[in-house]
Amino acid sequence: xxxRQAAERIADAAERSYDFVCxxxxxxxxxxxAEAGAVAGSLGRSCWLVAGGRAAVxxxxxxxxxxxxxxxGLEVRVVAVTSGEPTVAQVAEALAALPRAGRQDAxxxxxxxxxxxxxxxALAAVAADAADDEPPEQAVLDRLEGVGRGRxxxxxxLPVVAIPTTAGTGAEATRNxxxxxxxxxxxxxxxxxLMVPRAAIVDPALSTTCSxxxxxxxGLDAVTQLVESFICRVHRPLPRALVMEALPRALRxxxxxxxxxxxxxxxxxxxxAALVSGMALTxxxxxxxxxxxxxxxxxxxxAHGAACALMLPVxxxxxxxxxxxxxxxxxxxxxxxxxxxxxxxxASFIARIEGLCDAAETPRRLRDVGLAxxxxxxxxxxxxxxxxxxxxxxxxxxxxxxxxxxxx
Length: 408
Hints:
The chain is an alpha/beta fold. Helices cover 53% and strands 11% of the residues.
């Protein structure tokens, strides 16, 4: 019979156990996109390209990828050109158009923002997992969390090479793909450790042509992911260590890029932070800011990064009593001269984040993104999911509603 102390030691050991997943291969640095052909060629014999729209073209990313594939002798087939956040219908349409022959030799290369990469990951997963007789849209729905039949992936997805052209979502390192459905009014994830891209090629130069608003919202998305994964209810030691390294760089880099878009060193620090934020969130969790942001995207069509930026200061103030020491630790790693008193250091960190949001000129109130006041109860009811479950302070809709009313 195990005594109580032994049982406590076993429980403690269980809490300290963890998995860590990330892309098996990461290529980081200016000009690395030129290696896309060699990387894809190591994973398949043909390239199925999922490309972003104007941004991927403007960045030069699509042209560079197609040239790299040609240099490696890989045939390129464009299977989707994305626009905006991916929907169930869009992925189903691309799935229906994929050829049946040659799937075992295909590698999906995604070049674009986080939405493009999520599109590619979902397409790769369902293309490999769905039976031939499954209707495409139902096949997608059935593999989303909380939708359809909730089917887990039973087969490894087609290999994905992710090449981001923005610095924000970290989708190149995550194990999920977020899809929306305007007709059913939801935004849900397809999630599996098998969905982590087989390779991530992060070339900071590809983000140089992003607009100021995209740079701001994407950068604050990465900051939100770093912070929430550090303080979330289920945090892990490796992600926290990565956050401590990447967050100070992100907070210094974003204002520099907003002031001088051609600052290559700052662009590289932001791209690095975005990559790390993807690894951090996929191995820990998130919180209230992301939980509300997803519902805001459904209701108002607001860009995900802008919604995260709006909600992060609110979430920090709500959670501060529960995670004061963690916030103080983040402030001290950014500013070694910060107060030794946790309350003061935590307050300085929250003020720092609010100042960054002001400098980025992202929306600060819910009314600023077009939310009608009478939709606040709907927002509270629909701000849930895995992100909200990770919030340090438990929040049900009744507890969340007055917080949203104060942020209106």
